[in-house]
Design brief:
The protein is of the alpha/beta class and 255 residues long. It has helices spanning 3-6, 27-37, 70-73, 76-89, 112-131, 150-155, 166-175, 193-205, 237-254; strands spanning 11-21, 41-45, 134-143, 158-163, 179-180, 186-187, 228-231.
Length: 255
Amino acid sequence: MAHDELEAPQKTRVILVGVGGATCSGKTTLAKHLKRILPDSVIIHQDDFAPPQELVPIHPIYEVQDWDAAPGAILWPKLVNFLRGVKATGKIPNDHRSHDHLNEQKEIKIDDEVRDRWIEVFEAIQKQREQQGEKVIWGLVDGFLLYWNQEVIDEIDVRVFLRVPEPVLRKRRHERHGYHTAEGSLWRDPPGYWEQIVYPAYVDAHRDVFIGGDVEKGLPGEKVKGMMVINSMELSMSEAVSQVCGVLEGVSTNY
């Protein structure tokens, strides 16, 4: 009998890791570091599920497009179905296109020894899993509204939230040149956009996530069970990566 006929079929497990937080909190940076470490990993950017620019709602008071209010900022059924498809197949559909590469990318490095140590850890876990006839696919989902829609929350297996104080977020946002839309155009914040639209929408979307609606200092409530909160200003990016990897190591060996 041929060797391949003796091998049991490989079972694929997909673990979705959510990396949430406000705009400019470092979500995408963290997710990309994790992708470099985790074997068989993909990134899913929630921003890729924003509606076409012509369908973005107009704010009823300030009369500008509102890209941040949760109900209209994301095509929720499309995102939910996409996540379910990835969990079922372990693959990103061939026709999916991300526009993340068009946006300004500010590199924040981590220590080489930290990266190399965790690569070694997860390669060993991967090898052990393969010997057991299993393959683990990591789906890293980053988004500023990741924990608003319950159907999205339910699809995410490991839930991480980056907390950054409002003054720091505001400074970072004002320093950005803009955001590219799916159509390729560049969106620039009108005057007062952060204060009037972006931050109020962030607070409103996370009111139920934290006890007492306190997004700055509150503990996680019951809406997002098991959510890991990282106070980013108290840690280096290397430390944040290590904290998350420590959790993922436990998940991957017990999942």
